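Dear all,

This email documents one entry for the complex benchmark we are building for the journal club exercise. For each entry we list the sequence lines for every component of the assembly. Then comes the predicted three-dimensional structure of the complex as a token string, followed by one or two observations. Please use this as the template for your own entries, and keep the labels exactly as they appear.
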Amino acid sequence: MSDILVPLLVIIPLVGAAITLILGRHPRLQILISVLALTAVTAAAAVLLAIVDSTGKPAVVKVGGWEPPFGIVLVVDRLSAIMVVVSALVLLGVLVFAVGQGYADRDRDTPVSIFHPTYLILSAGLFDAFIAGDLFNMYVGFEMLLAASYVLLTLGGTGSRIRAGVTYVVVSLVSSLLFLGAIALIYGATGTVTMALLSDRIRELPLDVQMILCAALLIGFAVKAAVFPLSFWLPDSYPTAPAPVTAVFAGLLTKVGVYAIIRTDKLLFFDVPLQVPLLIVGGLTMLIGILGALAQADVKRLLSFTLVSHIGYMIFGVAIGTELASGATIYYIVHHILVQTALFLVVGLIERKGGSTSITQLGGLLKAAPFVAVLFFIGALNLGGIPPFSGFLGKVGLFEAGAASPNPLVYVMIGAGIVTSLLTLYALMRVWNMAFWRPKKDVEGYESPLIESLQEGPTGSVGTMTGTATATDTETRTSPLMIGAATGLMALTLGLTIFAGPLFDLAQRAAGNVSTPEPYIDSVFPEGALVPVSVDEGGVG
Amino acid sequence: MSASITLVVLMAVMYGAGVYVMLEKSLTRILIGFLLVGNATNLLIFIMSGRAGDSPIVDGNGADTVDPIPQVLMLTAIVINFGVTAFILALIYRSWWLSNLGDEGDDVAADDDEDEAMEIDQAGVFHASLEDDDAAVRSILDEGSDLGDPDDDDESGAGAGEQPSEQDRDVMR
């Protein structure tokens, strides 16, 4: 059963992309195909998660029947399955939002015909990266999703998007080349790219070689995950894209990087002492990210900075390294994917209702759009970590796991985490005060210390340019689908809160798979990794 | 593992030259830098396959064959780089278009809804306006002689085109 399901996760979106490309002239059929494809993947992933969770063993598929380490393997353990399920749900929700936006913009006959194929290729790349059993396949997955993301980010080719796109493309390319170079070095040192075998062989290398290889790989992933100091590109590129695209990027693309970091740390370089560097980097990511968010007037930019900042929590969780911490990290990743995507979708709605995304121009939204206000408020409290929401539970889980660690630096990080959490709440509540509570008539000439010395988005960003220019046109144009999609994702975050117990247990079980390399290796090589290391390739030292 | 020193030196030069060119502001030079660094990485993978040997087709007596896996990895990486290069070229063209034609260019390229990128029918408009595009480009080329260099708006075209070729020559040596 799982033999069929695992490859389908990648095949369905790719076939869907091909079909939607052919159907470029038939937008309705395109929508139908992409919704069907993503629904099918969601279902397949859910079944797979159930199978993997009940058997407790990762599902391994040898592509083309070649035995590892000679062929490509796809490995779905609980962590991969969870990531695929959550991404599929988010992709589906955002797709519905994008379709709704298309309908709302009266373009029933003329949507962008390349959107659906590109979106499906992005999904395929994402799933491929999550289920890849060897490093090179993971690289290919990354490249697929990045290539698709370049297209989505520069959709329409306006000046601001091209400018943002150039930064994004160049940074992503450099990180990809670093990743590829690291793969080459790892291959040179071990003679394989299959992760299960790598895990064995890397441990036989001298520690200094391990550290160099690990650093090369981690830097590549850290750029993708937007970990400080490699996070500068993110707030400049994400906010200019169309709202649904930003939502998907924010929710999923950085998390692929975090997922890759987890695999690197737990599976490949189990012996390398990464705790202190990761703790420091994680703490700085949190603090610098949130301080950036405080200075923003544009809600999209503000959210992009909070996104960077909250990646820090995940790095913190990875750094602690215990099974408890891994479980909390997985729960936190799921929470953050959902809440960040939902918030970006809500900002897309705010942009429609208020005609801008800058809090210096918004006002009176509570009266104009009470339902959107409720959605934003829930999301803001959740992201800010107010009990009883999942953001609070995830953070408590992380801090609890951290407090059990003997390293004193962890307590500094817990402090940084709490400060970050409060500052997130402050930034988002300021948006609430300005955009929702402030009456519309007060917006002109409003003076308050709260909005002094805020940085607007760069001229030409969507928030200031199209916002003011098209405010009157788009003001009322939201479709029920858009609100439905945003509500659905927000409901999922609430579900994460309500079913926190079982879900946290699931995350802990996933962590049990992940936190030591043995289950992964045993699943790929049931008889043990008996392939001899040839002297020629293996012992480079 | 042994490797040819020529390849190692070549790779190092390509990395160095590529990173240097990539640090320029101009998009074309970034592209050239990317090509150099990308191919240097391919070369790195190749070097990792160790010493040279017979072609890696298994015919029963595979005693002295070369390791085939790096070649497979390289092939995949080359294809990916190729695709990305095509995309960057399109990006450069679009960037040049916007910086030289600006809003006027948008009017030629698409209808007034250009800003609302989600709305426009890329396929329909694109096919319909290719000729308009070409005509507009040609008229611009005729008008100003200094606009021939497809740089982005951060830098005027003066002197561009010289440096990349120098770098190329370095690499060829």
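Observations: The helical segments of chain B are 5-22, 27-47, 69-109, 122-143, 162-172. Chain B has a mean pLDDT of 70.
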